[in-house]
Amino acid sequence: MKATGIVRKIDELGRIVIPKEIRRTMRIREGDPLEIFTEKDGEVIFKKYSPVGEIGSIAGDCAESLHKAADVSVIVCDKDTVVASSGVPKREYNDRPITAELEKLCDRRAGYTHSGNKLYPVDGCSKFVSCAAPIVCDGDVIGVVASLSDEEKKAENSTDMRLLNTAANFIASQIN
Questions:
Q1: Are strands 44-48 and 34-38 parallel, antiparallel or unpaired?
Q2: How many CB atoms lie within 10 A of CB 148?
Q3: Which helix (H) or strand (E) holds 133?
Q4: Which helix (H) or strand (E) holds 72?
Q5: How many CA atoms lie within 13 A of 172 on its CB side?
Q6: What's the rounded Cα separation, in Å, for the pair 41 and 176?
């Protein structure tokens, strides 16, 4: 655990303010869920909660199935990191933070199909997003399922988008 040197007091209602610098660094936004852990030695640990991350093995199986069925590279992300991938080197993608552009795509709440500008999912990767579908759970976007490409081509037809939407809906149903 890394010490920050920042000390905060708990107010009369039991609240504590997480400093802006830490929220920015850890990409914690208003409304984000946090898990609270306690240790025997008195430590209290706050961890960002990722519903998609909680079902990482299901997300991985879903990515693997999409890769085999459609012969495309696939990633499944929460709003901060790549949770699962298939058809790409896992060490290059899994557990890596997503780019700000992909995060904005999640916030749009709509499907995406490549149409010119390349949208890279993680910094330093060679493949870009060709299609993406948001994972919507209880009205909130909690992540995205995306197919990746290294070629300048648009989605062959609407089949890719339908497969991604199906995968996103399946993942959301596993969270509910």
A1: antiparallel
A2: 23
A3: strand 128-137
A4: none
A5: 19
A6: 35
When the pLDDT of each residue in the chain is averaged and rounded to a whole number, the result is 87
Q: Which residue(s) pair with 133 in the sheet? A: 145
Beta bridge partners of 113: 131
Instruction: Find the DSSP H helices in the chain.
Output: 20-25, 51-54, 56-70, 90-93, 100-108, 158-175
Amino acid at 77: C
Report d(CA 38, CA 27) in Å as an integer. Answer: 22
Strand partners, 34: 48
- Percent of residues, the chain, with pLDDT higher than 90: 40
DSSP letter for 81, please: B
- Yes or no: say if 29 and 49 are a contact pair by the CB < 8 Å rule: no
Give yes or no for a contact between 106 and 79, defined as CB atoms under 8 angstroms apart. yes
Task: Count Cα atoms within 13 angstroms, Cβ side, for 58.
Answer: 14
**Which single residue is written with the structure tokens 């802006």?**
20
Structure tokens at 45: 């640990």
| pLDDT score for 156 | 52
The CA distances from residue 147 to 28, 73, 99, 120, in Å, are: 26, 6, 15, 11
